[in-house]
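Backbone shape codes:
===
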Amino acid sequence: MNKKQVLLLAIVAIVLGAVGLRVYKRESASWTASPTGTNNLLYPNLDVNSVQKIIITENTNKVTLFKDDIWKVEDRYGYPANFTEISDLVRKIADLKPIQQVKVGPSLLPRLELTPPGSGTNSGTLIQLQDKSGKELAQLLLGKKHLRKSGEDSPFDSGWPNGRFVMQGTNILNTPSKSAWVVSETFSMAEARPENWLNKDFFKVENIKSISVTPTNHAAAWKVSRDKLFDDLKMVNTQPNEEIDKTKVSSLSSVFSYPSFNDVLKPDTDNELTGLNNPWKIEIETFDDFKYNILIGKQAKDDNFYLRLTVDANIPSERIKKEDEKPEDKERLDKEFKEKTAKLKEKLEKEKQLQNWIYIVSKWTVDPVMKERSHFMAEKKPENNQNKNSNTNSPTAPNI
């Protein structure tokens, strides 16, 4: 490349840079940021107690939360919703204060991700708060997250969210505001994913007395039990030639102690689709006289399984008094019995509400019990061939 060509390329680069700078300045001039006081609320007249429905729209996804006797998720067949998350969202919107006002032109809205949901890859997330009649109480369009820089020069430092660009009103889609705001809330939970809004309270098995498992291969069924709470679980009906791995059996004492679920299916979903027409059957009895019948269907996507359960309990109404009970102990024992009985009744009532649903649970939730009987057999140690051979080849004493 000669000097003339190098000079020509340099001139082209300078011209392109100047044009780019001019375009950038022109676009930047279409919006201005100005500080604002933090005492003003974006929704000063919002009555949180009037909010009866929440609609979140993100791209082409939508989730609707509504209040009946309790908050429910419409997109999950009316399954109970997570009231804590809903209350937190509504309260954050009601208390939302602007940090900075941003006056924007239409061409800048995509850059701030403040276009209507579904209008492109950079569209916003719309939150609608409505009253019982469907009247709009507030609309909030969530845009791009505002990033705070750490102040250190690093190619890996892209900052972290410390707020969000938003647009507020009561009819944003039809009459968009000419101003956006920067707020300190990131609204990271405000996603149009119904499964994220479910009340994830689940059943909890405590004080296991026995576990009976019948796989789809009925011949591989097994049962473990114990007579006292702090005894080790033992395999029932062991054969003389069976050697049980006690470590594997004892680990079953904590199964379903903290189970969780990821999503729910429609209660009347066909059992053939879930495999619940030919399930693994698990029966668990506890020392509190709770009995769980758990059905585990076939494997779903993402390494999950379908699960259904029923629960019942025999909760005593009166305390059985000991013959040698002292009068001074009666009041204390009666109080303890009353408190324990109340907790067990509350537990039973909550867990019975789970019976109508089909749950999608992770593999690790059900894996401990989805074992055939052979899994609990101790591994046979290989024979010591060296000793066997040495005994075989040892010289025989001569006959005298």
In short: DSSP finds seven helices and 18 strands in the chain.
